[in-house]
Amino acid sequence: GGPVGSEADELVDEDTQAQLIALGISSPVTRESAGARYHLELSRQLADFLLAGPLKRAGDLLPLPDVYCLFNRARGTELVSPDDLLAAVKLFGQARLPLSLRTFPSGFIAVQGAAHSDDAVCATLGRMAQPVKLAPGDGDTSAVPSLHAALGSPLTAVDVARELGCATAVAREHLVLAEARGILCRDEGPEGLRFFRNFFRDAAVLAG
Asked: Alpha-carbon distance 84 to 31, whole Å?
């Protein structure tokens, strides 16, 4: 649908799309050419395609619908069905490829590269949410800087997607993960869902 296409288009510009279409997909694997090994060969071709650029540009975590969209766009007329794509992705491990299928607690499904690190992502989010430090002599005593000094900068999925170069849906999962690890706290209000530094944990550390 529209949202899937728009997410994929955000990750790949026109020049890159042209390059992807030329990345060895001129001879796409088909049932006729691969026979009983169709899904295994499709898995290898999909991995080659993703590792050639799309996965790294997406922060080593690409939503499965975007994988489907980009891969079929590169294959031209030899389209792969959703079921065949899922079967191919599930064979990454058997084919000993540096990719895996990841399902988040929310049910969100993505293809993950071996270079992806939840620890590194959470560390980045923690830094992004650090309090704003005013330079000496700024002299701004308004309520907003005081709030930021106490709570840190609020984070949204859009903020994280922009910083990490990933899809907004992936950014949302990163924020929820950081919340589960006690790094961030959520705030649901008139401005929507935002996440702040977990200063409760900081207070507990100081008290201990």
From this structure: 10
* 93 touches 100 (CB < 8 A): yes
Domain ranges of the chain: 2-113, 118-207
| pLDDT tens, residue by residue, 144-199 | 555 556 667 889 999 999 999 999 999 999 999 999 999 999 999 888 899 999 88
Contacts of 53 (CB under 8 A, 6+ apart): 16, 19, 20, 23
The answer to whether domain 2-113 and domain 118-207 are alike in fold is: yes
| C-alpha closest to that of 124 among 151, 160, 149, 150 | 160
Fold of 2-113: Arc Repressor Mutant, subunit A (1.10.10)
Domain at 118-207, CATH class: mainly alpha
Q: 202: Cβ–Cβ under 8 A, 6 or more apart, which residues?
A: none
Q: What is the pLDDT of residues 80-134, one digit of tens each?
A: 999 999 999 999 999 999 999 999 989 999 999 999 999 999 999 999 998 766 5
Q: Is the pLDDT of residue 18 over 60?
A: no
Look at residue 77 in the predicted model and tell me its pLDDT. Answer: 85
